Model the fold of this input.
Amino acid sequence: MTPAVTLIFRKTDGAEIAVSAVPGQSVMEAAVMSAVPGIEGECGGCLSCATCHVFAPEGLTSPTDDNEDAMLDATEAPRGPNSRLSCQIVVGPEMDGQVFLIPGHT
Ligand code: FES
Done:
């Protein structure tokens, strides 16, 4: 069995929420399963809602493809240089301890 990793979600007030994630699931799935505020994942990860917007850590800041890139222009909080849709980020073992910022949520 693949060991779980811990992802950190940081709110704009600096408060952090540590979430256990399994490699192979998406960052959005891990956040939603742990009820992280500000990450809704309304469409279930099919790239049609942009309610899973995060500011991603270094190394994870490039959109997966043109579809994600286009949807990032429809996020509620303004897009930043490290904006990603967390449903398009697959958790890997190397992501243990990575910090994701939740845009516009305190
Ligand atoms: S969950 Fe809807 S676009 Fe990511």
